[in-house]
Specification:
This protein is of the alpha/beta class and 229 residues long. It contains ten helices and eight strands. The relative contact order is 0.22. Bound molecules: 2'-deoxycytidine-5'-monophosphate. The site of 2'-deoxycytidine-5'-monophosphate (DC) has 14 residues, from α2, α5 and α9.
């Protein structure tokens, strides 16, 4: 039987990490985990409970009550984020959550809570996980680490199209670009687990690549890695 590996995909906001991770997971029959969705789910729960960033006591009480899972929905062939049994996939992609998720992801209490769960998911291998600290903190021993990037303007256009497709018509290109740039800055400059390229990561810049070119390139790298373990 072919051995399974863990694949860590890190990179900037909206550069197609999720799309690539999903493609690799499907092609290899692996589990796909969107770790950003887990930070978004905690952010959503904090907004709902009215808990501020600096309220460590209430946050510590809230976290153990949160059960975050993923469910594949055949209708849109997408993994929806489920929080305590409720499908919150649409809510966690809202601008309200997008604007708050970066500060929430800086909180060490939140990171410790989520990293522990992510590491447990990876114990049996066969996981493709995308995020900001997967190759550096969550799976430092991942057999394959990919660091993705693309020009900010290209990413903003892609994200805007996605929001429009989901019915978010009010938002402007400038707002999306600002949100991306702010999050990139905050994710790269935070003290706790900043976005960093792991030393051994392969860089994929998809500014000039089509989705299928990017997917085929990454799948070839993954298959080569699998064949050498
Ligand atoms: O991938 P995303 O844009 O949905 O992630 C949302 C936020 O969560 C992003 O601003 C950075 C943070 N995040 C993180 O700190 N660590 C991860 N492993 C994944 C996401």
């Amino acid at each position: 039987m072919t051995k399974k590996i863990n694949i860590a995909i890190d990179g900037y906001s909206s550069c197609g990490k999720g799309t690539l991770a999903k493609f690799l997971a499907k092609s290899l029959n692996y589990i796909f985990i969107d770790s950003g969705a887990m930070y978004r789910a905690v952010t959503f729960a904090m907004i709902q409970a009215g808990i501020g960033f600096d309220n460590a006591i209430e946050l510590e009480a809230l976290l153990p009550k949160l059960k975050i899972t993923f469910k594949h929905i055949p209708e849109d062939d997408f993994y929806h984020t489920i929080l305590n049994g409720e499908d919150i996939e649409t809510e966690i992609r809202s601008m309200a959550v997008s604007n708050m998720v970066s500060p929430v992801s800086k909180i060490q209490l939140v990171r410790d809570f989520l990293v522990k769960q992510q590491q447990e998911i990876g114990l049996n291998k066969g996981v493709v996980m995308d995020g900001r600290d997967i190759g550096t903190v969550v799976f430092p021993d991942a057999e394959l680490k990919i660091f993705m990037t693309a020009k900010a303007e290209i990413r903003a256009h892609r994200r805007l199209n996605e929001l429009r497709e989901n019915g978010n018509l009010a938002i402007s290109y400038e707002e999306v670009l600002k949100n991306l740039n702010d999050r990139d800055y905050s994710d790269s400059n935070r003290v706790n687990s900043p976005l960093l390229k792991a030393e051994s990561a392969v860089i994929i810049d998809n500014s000039e690549l089509s989705k299928s070119e990017q997917n085929e390139l990454a799948l070839a790298i993954a298959n080569k890695t699998i064949s050498t373990i």
